[in-house]
């Protein structure tokens, strides 16, 4: 079992990272190198979080063995017995042999650092480049990253000069390595505290507000109003870009040297625009070299970049709008079913996607009603209380983890109590829950934040390559300081505990931070205390209020602008719901008409043809018959015509389809 736990976690974390990447990325349309680089970055960061508890339990066992070896003892099988106290050091079930963890951490850490500081920034610029060749994209990426890399070299040079000037230090390779690690961890810790302070408050509060009746529905209306504005802006931007592409496509003919670049741009356009531009092509006309109105290759590169961005944004807003509509319709159904006497959940619209038969068998309308209308609010309240308790413990421990006598950090108290009894299962579970909660607070903030339209992680495969790579960079920079902060909270870091004990394998690869004493004894200890100020600011929504004052509308219950956007979103959802109802009613009428009269179409046509032939022959042979004969025949033909008209498909007319609202006419356009 020594390596089984490590192997199982390695496999499990890989599929976890693959599942999350599949949810946000698009494996079919995005470049394979982007998918592989992002998957590797996410995988390494998640792997550090899951493997670190095993490192802690292994370190505690190794400390026990060292204590036994330094005192009279006798060996007995898989454990060592102390002579004075007859205490046993059991080997943990997840024990990892010596020598494996240092190599494992060294490979994982330096690979993640190579990704975040060198490879991923280069791939970001490469992915956003509008070049038409690999060489052009590489050149653009190198130019854009020249300032980026120069800034990091400047920071590293400042640390290097500080150590060189200080006469107490002799520059060695290990010390240079420690300086580089300290510089990277300092930057990561600075960002970590900001994200952690937001997540510690926002995650419990979001679950508590989710239990309130009508809160999620009001917030969905608010999102609908904002998303409609963004959707209209994306459509307008795409129309403008496509107009520029059309002009370029008409000016550059088939035998122009830059025609290949134009064809590359046209392939990135939506299908309807490609067909529209293809019909207006006059490729038989040659270009005139004497004309100077042709765009340059540099302008085509810029246009190519704009096309990629506008098409991605337009597709993302369309998908998000449909998802938001489904969410709004479902929340409205929940509000209606809360007062249902039958206690069965009734949907206004049927799901467009086929449901799983197993889920449909167990998740019946009755079960769905009890969960959505009765149990789910209470579950969210209990979960919010548990998360708030964890947040309070984290804030308290962040402010007191530097105190070793007495030990004030609650996480350190829990680990030390379990260490005395060598309860490795409890140690690993406590460590896992602690670092998992810290990771959720930090990583969820990374998934929530949005920097205009440059960085935005959108689910349902709508995240662009730039945002995926940027998230990989953030994860690789935040995870090492997050783990060091966790080891400090539990006093497993010798720099914090001030004890001459065996360090964890993860701490050993970081080197001794005593090379930079002002960071080890100052920044790493006192800067995390700022999480208290950030939690208070998040609780009172100071950041949200500032953004609202700057013109970025945020959801605030006491804001007049929020109320207006909620009313606007409610009206938009009502229109879309009415439109969906009309479509379903029309489809139902057509289906019922076909089921009722569909089998009579062929027989009616045959009867009509036979009647015409019979009447024509009857007219030729009996021209002198009385007029009443013709009258009867004409009456029969009239009845056949009426029957044919009855078999025709009815018009889908509804009084509500007549719309005088200019907004709805625009959306229809």
Automatic annotation (TrEMBL):
Short name of any one Pfam family annotated for the protein: LMBR1
GO CC terms of this entry: membrane
Bias kind Polar residues: ranges: 618-634
Protein source organism: Mionectes macconnelli
Compositional bias annotation for Basic and acidic residues: 582-617, 635-644
Coiled coil stretches, renumbered: 224-251
Main location: membrane
TM helices/strands, residue ranges: 6-21, 33-52, 103-126, 146-165, 177-201, 378-396, 425-446, 466-489, 523-542
Topology of the protein relative to the lipid bilayer: Multi-pass membrane protein
Signal peptide range in chain numbering: none
Gene that this polypeptide is encoded by: Lmbrd2
Localisation: Membrane
Keyword annotations: Coiled coil, Membrane, Transmembrane, Transmembrane helix
Region (Disordered): 576-669
Protein name: LMBD2 protein
Matching InterPro entries: GPCR-associated_LMBR1, LMBR1-like_membr_prot
Protein family: Belongs to the LIMR family.
């Amino acid at each position: 079992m020594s390596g089984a736990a490590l192997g199982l976690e390695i496999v499990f974390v890989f599929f976890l990272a693959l599942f999350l990447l599949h949810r946000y990325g698009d494996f079919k349309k995005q470049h394979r190198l982007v998918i592989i680089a992002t998957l590797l970055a996410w995988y390494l960061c998640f792997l550090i979080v899951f493997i670190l508890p095993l490192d802690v339990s292994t370190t505690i066992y190794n400390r026990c063995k060292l204590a036994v070896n330094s005192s009279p003892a006798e060996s007995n099988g898989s454990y060592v017995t102390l002579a004075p106290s007859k205490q046993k050091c059991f080997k943990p079930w997840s024990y990892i042999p010596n020598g494996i963890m240092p190599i494992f951490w060294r490979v994982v850490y330096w690979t993640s650092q190579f990704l975040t500081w060198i490879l991923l920034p280069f791939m970001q610029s490469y992915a956003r480049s509008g070049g038409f060749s690999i060489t052009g994209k590489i050149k653009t990426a190198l130019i854009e990253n020249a300032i980026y890399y120069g800034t990091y070299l400047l920071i590293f040079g400042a640390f290097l000069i500080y150590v060189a000037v200080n006469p107490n230090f002799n520059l060695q390779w290990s010390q240079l390595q420690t300086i580089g690690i300290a510089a990277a961890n300092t930057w990561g810790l600075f960002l970590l505290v900001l994200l952690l302070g937001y997540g510690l408050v926002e995650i419990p509060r979001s679950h508590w507000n989710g239990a309130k009746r009508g809160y999620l529905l009001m917030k969905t209306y608010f999102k609908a109003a904002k998303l409609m504005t963004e959707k209209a802006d994306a459509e307008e931007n795409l129309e403008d870009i496509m107009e520029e592409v059309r002009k370029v496509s008409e000016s550059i003919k088939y035998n122009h040297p830059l025609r290949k670049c134009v064809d590359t741009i046209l392939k990135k356009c939506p299908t309807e625009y490609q067909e529209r531009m293809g019909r207006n092509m006059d490729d038989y006309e040659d270009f005139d070299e004497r004309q100077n109105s042709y765009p340059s290759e540099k302008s085509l590169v810029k246009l190519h970049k704009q096309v990629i961005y506008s098409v991605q944004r337009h597709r993302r807003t369309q998908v998000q709008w449909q998802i938001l509509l489904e969410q709004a319709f479902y929340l409205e159904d929940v509000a209606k079913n809360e007062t249902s006497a039958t206690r069965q959940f009734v949907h206004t619209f049927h799901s467009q996607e086929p449901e799983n038969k197993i889920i449909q068998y167990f998740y019946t309308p009755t079960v769905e009603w009890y969960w959505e209308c009765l149990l789910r609010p209470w579950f969210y309240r209990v979960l919010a209380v548990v998360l708030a308790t964890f947040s309070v413990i984290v804030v308290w421990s962040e402010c007191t983890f530097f105190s070793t006598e007495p030990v004030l950090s609650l996480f350190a108290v829990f680990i030390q109590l379990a260490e005395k009894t060598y309860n490795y299962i409890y140690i690993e579970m406590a460590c896992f829950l602690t670092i998992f909660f810290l990771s959720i607070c930090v990583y969820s903030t990374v998934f929530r934040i949005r920097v205009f339209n440059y960085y935005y992680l959108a689910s349902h495969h709508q995240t662009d390559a730039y945002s995926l790579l940027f998230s990989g960079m953030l994860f690789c920079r935040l995870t090492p300081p997050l783990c060091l902060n966790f080891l400090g909270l539990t006093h497993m870091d010798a720099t914090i505990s001030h004890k001459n004990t065996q360090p964890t394998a993860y701490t050993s690869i970081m080197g001794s931070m005593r090379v930079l004493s002002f960071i080890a004894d100052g920044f790493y200890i006192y800067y995390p205390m700022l999480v208290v100020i950030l939690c208070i600011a998040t609780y009172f929504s100071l950041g949200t209020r500032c953004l609202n004052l700057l013109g970025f509308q945020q959801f605030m219950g006491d804001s007049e602008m929020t109320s207006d956007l909620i009313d606007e979103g409610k009206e938009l959802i009502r229109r879309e719901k009415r439109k969906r109802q009309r479509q379903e009613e029309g489809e139902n009428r057509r289906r019922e008409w076909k089921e009722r009269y569909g089998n009579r179409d062929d027989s009616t046509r045959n009867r009509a043809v036979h009647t015409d032939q019979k009447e024509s022959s009857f007219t030729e042979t009996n021209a002198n018959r009385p007029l009443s004969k013709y009258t009867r025949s004409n009456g029969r033909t009239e009845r056949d015509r009426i029957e044919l008209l009855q078999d025709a498909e009815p018009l889908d007319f509804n009084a509500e389809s007549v719309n005088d609202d200019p907004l709805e006419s625009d959306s229809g356009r």
